[in-house]
Amino acid sequence: MKLMDLLHRWCGGVLGLILAILGLSGAILVHKEEWMSLPHASDVRVTDPSQLGQLAEQLLGGAKGGESLVFASDRFGLVQLRDGAHGLYATQRGEVIARWSSKWERPELWLFDLHHHLFTGDVGETVVGVAGLAAIVFAVTGAVLWWRTRRTFRFRLWPRRMSGPAIRMQHRDLGIIATPVLLILALTGTMMIFRPVAGTVLAPLSSPAAIEADLKAPKFAVGPLARDLDWHAIIRIAHEAFPTAELRILAIPKKPGDPITIRMKQSAEWLPNGRTMLWFDPTDGRLLGNRDATRMHAGTQAFNMAYPLHAGKVGGLAYRLLLTAVGLALALLGSLSVWSFWFCKKQRQAASRSSSCSRPC
Q1: Which of 165, 215, 314, 329 fits a disulfide with 308 by CB distance 3.0 to 4.6 angstroms?
Q2: Mean pLDDT of the 84-104 span
Q3: What is the pTM of this model?
């Protein structure tokens, strides 16, 4: 038990600040659609395929490759066009509301990059995944360590004083309250970063190979991107294939040889952008194939629930508020862990030296 306590403290002292950043940024991002406060953000989502085709024609006319168009949703009434570091928000009539040429010009973009990559790309994503695995271990070992002191439980949002023992008492008691949701957040986040983790967790439902096959895009022999594609026809064909599905993303290939991809969301899907896919030839707009997300393996459908659970895309406002509270708790737990581990010890040593020096010889 002493070894578990020692490892828990050391790992918390090293990774606590990263977990605090993830908790705070996640608590802010879960309400992104509300605090962005852009004009027409509350517009009702357009569902008419002809209007969506006209919108795509207007925003994607003259596309050179690499652009992606994210259509409006029920929570956010603007469309987003991304082209590398550049992008814009527009109304569903095609009127441009805001533009940017760098992620630093939009708080929701750099906050997303901070939460997912720590501003360091793939390396940062790996660090976030390791921190997620550590958070799972923290939650389990913390619950075991708390059980010994359960009779002293007190609900404390803040330590009674900034001393090591007081911080540890607050840490144990606040941590045990947040543990169930923290486990969900850590597990779902880690599953999205490390596929072997997802394969292990979902193995009772489907084999990792079956899940990977469901998520892997098929290969097609296609030509280069044409300049005069009929976007109206492409969107009409997509809606004819899945009449009740919601159009979510239209992505134009960045390199020759890749197809145009459309993502749609069916009512049975939790994933905000859906995993129902259609692929089109970029030369003539011909439908090459599609994949119905509701017919994927059970493990894949469970994997598709990871992001909605992690980001508060299901459960409504009540669940988002719960994630906010737990994210703020994680920020507090992580930051105070670092403080107590690195600074309270120095304060004790300094106080001890001062006490020794003040004794008469």
Answers
A1: 314
A2: 95
A3: 0.89
